[in-house]
Amino acid sequence: MHSLNILILGAYILITILLTLLFVDKKKWIALLISSLLSYFYYVDIQILILLSVWIIVYGFSFSVKKSKFIFRLSVLLSLIPLLTYKLTVGVGHFDSFMSRGITVEGTNWINIFQVLGISYFTFIAISYLIDIKRGYIQPEKNFFRLLLYLSYFPTIFSGPLHRYKYLSKQFENIRITQESLTNGTRLILWGLLKSIVVAPRIFQLMHSLNNNGISGTYYLVVGLLFFLYLFISFSSFIDIFQGVSECINIRLNDNFKSRIYLSYSRQNFWSGWHITLNEWFRDYFFFPLAKKKKNTTYVDLILLLTFLSIAMWHEVSIAMLIWGSCNGLWIVLEKKMNLQKWPYAKFRRVFGTIYHLFFSSILALIFINSDLSSLIERLSLASHFPSESLNFSKLIILIFCFLFMDLISGQIKNRRIDEYLASVSDNFRWTIYSVLVLSILLFGSIGKIDNYYIIF
Amino acid sequence: MTKYLRSIAYLSFIILFWCTIKLYAPENFESQRFKSTIEGLNNKSVVFVGSSRFRRGISDKELAARIPNRQFVNLGVFRNTMLPNFILSEFLIDSTEVELIFFELSLLNFEFTSSQMDLIRSLELSIPNSLNLISSGNSLEDLRTTVSIHNDLLLSKLIIKNQINAILGKKNTQPLFGYLPSKDNDVADESSFLKLEELTSTPGQKIDLHSYRILLNTLIRKADARNKKIVFMIPSTSRRPAEKDVIIPLFNSISRENKLIVDSLFFQRITKAEYLMDRNHFNLEGAIVHTNELARLILDQKFIELPSP
Lengths: 457, 309
What we know:
heterodimer; A: mainly alpha; 20 helices; B: alpha/beta; four-stranded parallel β-sheet; two-stranded antiparallel sheet; 14 helices
């Protein structure tokens, strides 16, 4: 599994900026292509050929997908082959494999060939590109290499967000490095670093410590809750950091999370702000085409359930994920039937809704991380035990302080990004926030790589 | 103009604060203790280099009671893996008088905790030097490893939480190395114990052991050249099945004179759920039994000989 580190991040920004100086405005995208391919090659070595083959397939078929349904289906299927092969052959137990990092397995196993960084990302955007051409939303890109840049743009390949071709290609023509772009980029990176090297690892350590010290019974839900928070913070930190990297060269990436998504008051509210671009992808390219055929509510609910099952299977083809996907789908369908939005006492509904959502999210998080459901049930049915002796109170206080600081700022940000929010406050307040961010990182940061759990998918 | 001055003032404050902490923070108490423990080693010293499994499962006092003519020192460190164990063992061979080193086999990964960084730095050891040894044959992979280690080094230099703790006189809640018994017993089954059959069975998947062998052979060669002995040990418990896929073939590939061979009596005596603190570690009761069994094996295999009565 690949982790990001600060040196690579710095090197990427520096190389990209230096390369852009070599090209005239209209050709600056070539600098991005070179730095993206170099960075991607650094991580995946010869496996870059998988990306290149998807690129050749997509480019080759893009001019004829409109002409024939067969060619369109064939092109989508061919683009999907590496991802499908990977997903169908990779072992079960993503949580265990995340915890067992550091084992070098010989590369002779052919299945490992498809275990390549960003495979989900470039496959999804390749398919969206082909479908958008088929639907007549865009024209096929004539420039072979501009399409490659779309598929390999480094700030997005680690873990998204996903973008439509139309959205990114326009911005590739407008690459500029200005004081404003660098300032905004740095703000986002700093914010992402707070989350990724201070808050997320501390939550992970706490979860790990409780998990290894025999937490059981209903208290085991605390592990689920901590994993839920960890997943959001580590994943969204990656998005912040790469939005920042991209912002430095004046390319604005899509948002992938609503701030404070952990305080969602319903599952519908949660899914509207969690991994937004992936859910939109499934909505636009899977749910809508199937749902539009019939307006019958039961049919639409079934398609919704099927969409969540597909999302689950994309994570991992396993019984546990099948149950996880079904629970998510059924939960949404149930909420729709109950029409929670129309219930009285809006304020109470929100507070109660948040508790209710956190409770069930913790259960789903436990299903998500336990590939062996019988051991999950066994652990939950044991006598309740909370290993308080394993808690380090000073670490816990630091975690609470950092989390509350992050939460407080996230509450202020609302639907903006941190860079926009910081631009809107007074100079003194802005510099106070910078100072707290930098000092929190220097005082409470953890040594190691910037990990994002979602990279394994 | 005022805007720039304000920015400069804030930045200067942060830089000045960081520099002051870096310059004036005393050395961490545990680093000092580690350094003085290493300095106290002599030609009768027998050290155990490993992870928390050694810390929880090997009582140096119990060993000293069984084998009185040696000084036993447990240098186990939480989360130590192959590389930090290698770096420390290499230093012990090169720069101390230590007679015998017992080395715990574990996974080779390239992640270091801040405690490991502190202890390594207290002995002024270099991680990148050790990396030169384990070239994978793929220059890009080697570059990734080097960059990753330098990233950890950079962060460990930038982050000042340990210095702040030292200034505040705050000791670590737990000592960073050495025997650390626990009376807890939260495990009801024996599945995490290594079994004798596993040592003789064929591993489930093929693992690249090239880098591991280079590290082990380097230590054996260096120890031989300095008339010292290094003995590799297989951990008695493992929480992660994937770890066994690495350490069992590795252990089996080591020649008899450089490993502590475990027998059926050893497994029979140590394998009890009540001896575990958690799935990966012995508790106090288990540590006593485990240590006594190790003492028996060490004496039986003549790594140490008792003085004649």
